[in-house]
Amino acid sequence: MTNLLPIKDPAVYRELVNTLYRQSPPIFLGNIAVAGLSVFLLWDEVARGNLLGWAAAVYLLTVLRVALVWKDRRRGPHRLEDTSRRCRQYVFWVAVSGCLWGAMGPLFFAPENTIVTVYLGIVLAGMTGGSVASLSAFWPAYYLYALLTVLPFALRAFAHGTPLFSVLGVLSLFLLGVNLAYCRVMQRTLSDAIRLRFENAALVRQLTQEKDRAEQANHSKSQFLAAASHDLRQPAHALGLYIESMRMAAQAPKIERAAIETLAERLQSALTSMSQLLDVLLDVSRLDAGVIQVERRRFRLQDTFDTLANQYTQAAAAKGLELKIRRTDVRPDTDPILLQNMLSNLLSNAVRYTAHGKILLACRRRHDALDICVLDTGIGIAEDQFDRIFQEFYQVENIVRDREHGLGLGLAIVKRTAALIGAELRLRSVHGKGSCFTVSLPHRDEPARAPLPSAQMTLRPQAAGQHTVLVVDDDKQVLDGMAVLLASWGYAAIAARSLEHALRALDDATPQLIVTDFRLAAEATGIDVVHAVRQAVGWDVPALIITGDTSPQGISAANASGLKVLHKPLDIATLKEAMAIEVLHLPSRISPR
Description:
This protein is of the alpha/beta class. The chain has helices spanning 10-22, 24-42, 48-74, 83-102, 104-108, 114-130, 132-135, 139-160, 163-251, 257-289, 301-318, 336-352, 410-421, 455-458, 476-488, 499-505, 526-537, 552-560, 572-584; strands at 297-298, 322-325, 333-334, 358-366, 369-376, 424-430, 434-442, 468-472, 492-496, 513-517, 543-547, 564-567.
């Protein structure tokens, strides 16, 4: 039996059928009681053979329906596929019941005995009215039952033709119409209640899941912050020791150049260690903020493989691992930098979690796709961990957050980047035997196009030529450090700690370049500084924004300005080149005062 109700949700439809079965007991009790009472009252009024035969049929049918419902309820929860069968089965027996009760009209109709006829009308009206509550969950079942019960009596009353029986026929049809309408209202109300119950249950489940996820995220981030704090404190502590050592060396009677060079290298190493951690956090925030632009082009994948080989061969060999990279001649059409970052994260994990054996990086064509695989013989990943390893701050078998095992952000970055470049990320792994991560890229064989030269490829830093640079930062130590550094590069630096100071400094000199922190005091930003200075001097002074904000909102706001954005801690070479490029593009009519 197909769904006769305008209900699209199969779960709601199933629950309505379940309600039919649950509400059956009152019907059965009513059938038994009314049939027994009818035999008692009509014993001397109608043919006893017909009366006993009818009552026996009602009792037999009731027993069969009780057995049917008992068997159905013993089966427990039912599948959605069983709903139509159960509905068809129930409606069939309801129709049989309606026929038996409707047979009272033709069998026991007695025009000469008004009391019997009125009693029949009352019984049939009571049976149809009393069944509304039990059968309204599925109005077609009730309609079938009520029509089969009442119509034979009404037709028989109209056929007799006398005014009294015509009135009885009309009244029976009127009550029938009222009950049918009431049944439709109750069915709609019940359907809405069931749907609302399901929606509430789904909402409770969703809220529970969100609560669990929030608690898990809070717990994971608490662990991460503890690990990140430790990782930041370690190089910061080392920096303090090296600075003190350098101070002691400076106070020595004789300054040894080699010792100073060694200390400088160690300072740089500690700073690099700190920068790597902050860069990872920045990568996640930039991906979440959606500010990373995909620059697709055709390129030789082998060049990327060669770069990765240079990056990880030594690290793999130090652990006694064999790093095999199969040569390839494919030229994918995607962002080479983002793809390289993805593969670098995967290779880094492979080296970190492989104690012995080998690591393989290879590419193969598969129909209209390229599958780039990173395979290792490491610890492997249990199948129940497949989803969790791509979450932030989660690491397999690193509960204590050993800093040598990273921070658990690499695979989260890989997953976000794969979605960004339109790649599919797949994982096959056997716990204890190894893993295979596959980055699948759409690919069509097309003639390679030579990449257009970019400005960054053709421009080279030039001499500063005593250009004036306005430096704005609300941190005095950073401001002093920038001023000393720019002076060593040959720039004339104007230092300002706020927007107001920057505008006042314009009375003494006009800058050819602005280098400003993004977050400043008094809720001002570097963007505000750039706009105010440009308005004051009357031309668009080139500007660089420097930010330590790793939140998606902060990164989005900085990038939305359209200005060149650099992130703290700064790579000095990157800063120097960025400044040189901006100075190189200065209009020829602008000259320092």
